[in-house]
Write a structure and sequence with these properties.
The chain has about 260 residues and is of the alpha/beta class. The protein has a single domain, classed as 4-Layer Sandwich (Metallo-beta-lactamase, Chain A), CATH 3.60.15. It is about 35% helix and about 25% strand. Strands 1-2-3-4-5-6 form a 6-stranded mixed sheet, covered by helices on one side. Helix 4 crosses helix 9 and helix 5 runs antiparallel to helix 6. The chain is globular and about 60 Å long. It starts with 5 loop residues before the first strand and ends with a helix. Belongs to the metallo-beta-lactamase superfamily. Glyoxalase II family. Its cofactor is Zn(2+). Keywords: Hydrolase, Metal-binding, Zinc. One of its GO terms (molecular function) is hydroxyacylglutathione hydrolase activity.
């Protein structure tokens, strides 16, 4: 559970990464999700007079973990105790607490709690943090798309995306990259007759022209426009069949065909 006192803010990093800062109206503490770049995080802490208390990691890729060491050194100089949380099955040297599915993370100072989901696919040990308001899903689910399969199988990724699709429809999705516009170009190729998708693509176009973020998105929207969450729909099944020139016997195979298409799009 969480209450209304939390504030989630994007810290822009690299070309298109979002590092998520979770803060509270009640104190100066902050948690960071996937801080790949310590420099932009430290700048944010200094500009807003905030004290780092926790780091949440979804997976081991360098653009998600690269800033941990420097942030811990900076926090030590400030005498801030920082707890680093992350996936139990991935090698991340700085983790204090390792997590697996259904574990809970209680950020007491932020009056905020998360439950862990195992989301293998992008990497074997990828996890997400969710509660009744939000999910931090790293590189598993993006708006209009999903992560590449670097370590997991299509079947694993489809199962992981199904877990996310089953969250409450008003759950806010905080993913780690601004990939929406490129994802929607592919989604429109898969499902050119989806009116919701066309409308959303126009909204995203305007936002990006104004350099506005398209994240967070939410589960309800993604169920309408994201081909990777719609593998049970006839329109997606037909597109997968047309692309692969063969029938897919189940939704997981439909996902596999669509993901292979995206890899070569």
């Amino acid at each position: 559970m969480t209450n209304s006192h939390q504030i989630v803010t994007a810290i822009n990093a690299f070309n298109d990464n979002y590092i998520w800062a979770i803060s509270s109206q009640n104190n100066d503490k902050i948690a960071l999700v996937d801080p790949g770049d310590a420099v932009v995080c430290i700048k944010y802490l200094q500009e807003n007079n905030l004290a780092l208390s926790a780091i949440l990691i979804t997976h081991h890729h360098s653009d998600h973990v690269g800033g941990i060491e420097k942030l811990l050194e900076y926090s030590k100089d400030k005498a801030w105790p920082v707890t680093v949380y992350g996936p139990a099955t991935e090698k991340i040297a700085q983790l204090d607490i390792t997590l697996k599915e259904n574990d809970t993370v209680d950020l007491t100072e932020l009056d905020c709690q998360f439950t862990v989901l195992d989301l293998p696919g992008h990497t074997k040990g990828h996890i997400a943090y969710y509660n009744d308001k939000m999910v931090f899903c790293g590189d598993t689910l993006f708006s209009g798309g999903c992560g590449r399969l670097f370590e997991g199988t299509p079947q694993q990724m489809h199962h992981s995306l199904t877990k996310l699709a089953n969250l409450a429809t008003d759950t806010l999705i905080y993913c780690a990259h601004e990939y929406t516009q490129a994802n929607l170009a592919f989604a429109l190729a898969v499902e050119p007759n989806n009116t919701d998708l066309h409308n959303y693509a126009e909204q995203v176009k305007v936002k990006r022209q104004q350099n506005q973020a398209t994240i967070p998105t939410n589960i309800a929207l993604e169920l309408q426009i994201n081909p990777f969450l719609r593998c049970h729909e006839e329109s997606i099944k037909l597109a997968a069949q047309t692309y692969s020139n063969q029938n897919q016997p189940n939704d997981s195979e439909v996902f596999s065909a669509i993901r292979a298409w995206k890899d070569n799009f």
